[in-house]
Amino acid sequence: MALLTPEDLDSLSSKFEDSESIIERVTGSKLTDICKDIYGKDLGSEKVGIIPITAGNGIISNFSSSLLFIIQRLGLEGFITQHTDVAGYHEAISEGADILLMADDHLFIAHNLKDEKVVTNHEATGTIYSEIASRFKDADSSEILVIGLGRVGYAGAKHLAEKGFNVYACDPNRSFLEKAAHELGIKEYCKEDRKKFSMVFEATPNANTINEGMIAERCLVSTPGIPCGLPEEVGKKFRVDLVMEPLFIGVTSMIYAVI
Ligand code: 2YC
Ligand code: MG
To answer: Is the model's pTM score more than 0.90?
Structure first.
């Protein structure tokens, strides 16, 4: 899985402010209102413990501080434990955390100690980015294209299928496509159909996954993908709105998912 780099997290606040205003413009709703709507709950006074984890590639220098910034910007009390790993886990509990945030190289989870809810960043990110795509005010149909059916893409396709959208998907891995068609009832995107979409949810770790044969004149591309799947020249040639941000949107969704 693509790991964040400290550079990805640089200027997180300005990247987030930009994407927050784009979300509001293209969907008509604030990110937190969309989260309230899909998870059915509002933030309370939850206390969030952030535990640095040294496993695998180890600590990403500004990962925990980025999480703390997000938690505080959501208006919640947050703290980063002095200790890492198990000692940090114990410290967070001793300090009265309601929700724990911790990530190794394979999973990034939010765990609500009070009601045992757990969510992965993959699930929460797939849900929120696909939901944002599906709320495009200028959409010309209920058809939505999902590019990538890995852990994030599949979660988003599942969310959209459950909401009754007409989901088309593509992924180079045929077994991923067959699994999604069988379990979610989604359709395979075939470029021969020359179908053009005004709502695109892209969840791949590759660049240039979106080509101009796929998108309508007015189009919203919603993607957590690093690097961006939308080629610069395509974004300019078409009137494409792009919602893309490395961490804040996904973490906001994780918090609402477990409160
Ligand atoms: O600083 C730490 O505690 C590190 N163990 C954090 C490692 C995070 C690795 N995961 C990622 O970079 C990506 C993120 C986009 C979120 C999910 N995986
Ligand atoms: Mg994100």
So the answer is: yes
